[in-house]
Amino acid sequence: MANRTVKDAHSVKGTNPQYLVEKIIRTRIYECRYWKEECFALTAELLVDKAMGLKYVGGVYGGNVKPAPFLCLLLKMLQIQPEKDIIVEFIRNEDFKYVRALGSLYMRLTGSSIDCYKYLEPLYLDYRKLKRQKKDGTFEIVHVDEYIDELLREERSCDIILPRIQKRMVLEESNLLDSRVSALDEDLEDMDTSDEEDIIDIYKDANKEKKSSRANKELERSKRSPSPKHIRSQSPHHRDRDHTRKRSRSRDRDRDRKSDKRYKEDDRKHKSHKSSKEGRDGRDRNDRGDRGDRGDRGDRGDRGRGDDRYKDRHRDRHRDHGSRQSKHSSKDDLDIQESNELRAKLGLAPLRP
Fold first, then answer.
1. CA-CA distance, 293 to 343, in Å (whole number)?
2. 59: nearest Cα among 143, 121, 132, 151
3. What CA–CA distance (Å, rounded) separates 4 from 23?
4. d(CA 119, CA 65)
5. Which of 25, 107, 236, 278 sits CB 3.0–4.6 Å from 111 for a disulfide?
6. 285-318 b/e with 16+ CB inside 10 Å = b?
7. Percent of residues in the chain assigned helix, strand, coil, to nearest 5
8. pLDDT tens digits for range 122-167
9. What whole-number distance in Å separates Cα of residue 353 and Cα of residue 268?
10. Would you tell me how many other CB atoms lie within 10 Å of the CB of residue 33?
11. pTM across the whole model
């Protein structure tokens, strides 16, 4: 008797309201402890208090198919069949989210297609979290809008097969429902306008940044290559650096000059040494000629001519050297005079000066 539907209950979808729940699940509910202790002799008024005590949404769980309290209260509502106004109040209740979830599932099972879209679609704006029990006994977090979308689109919820309802498009074409206006349309329009303003602001900021970057580049260029007017206004550090550079340059120049002087002096010494050596060689040759004249009178004329040729060559060399060998020419003249005196004593022809 406790599991029978009330006498004045109306058939739903052409059958007993309790038959909307499958027989296996229904028998499991009848045998569970929560049904026997908490759902016995419940009325519509007392059912509200029990619904407020729910802590999660769920169907059956475990290996032996245990029903959740949420599913037991749903079957009790199908059994006593409360009035439509009570179910609407369940759905509109904003304080207790599990009461709203229970009323939504009952409306989806027993209500018409128009009532389902009319009362359940506004709940898309409810983003509160719900704790739902899975078949293995664990829990997961879903949101109210996700739960409502599951009721309107899926074929099964909380392990209960949901009755078929007509598509919203069909109801709109038959003028039974108005076209759905999303609450996000106004937000999208506001976002579009705000995006346009943001784009304009970003473009302005980009132009400002470009101008500032150009100005900074010009300043850097002016700092890198200062004009002659600004050379005097350089920092002391730059002045010291220029002064050190000038010093190093002057030192290098002095070193080059000294090296040139040393090279010239060495060249002069080498040339003087060479000329003196040549003079010595000439005198040695003359002495040899004299000694030859003393030993062999027949070769005097030939050796005299050879000495004349040697003197001519020596004179030509002195002409090429010019002023550099002017100091040594006097010594050569003295040597020639001495040789001429000796040749006069011997009765030979004098040498040409």
1. 10
2. 132
3. 14
4. 32
5. 107
6. ebeebbeebeeeeeebeebbeebeebbeebeeeb
7. 70, 5, 25
8. 999 999 999 999 999 899 999 999 999 999 999 999 999 999 999 9
9. 26
10. 9
11. 0.54
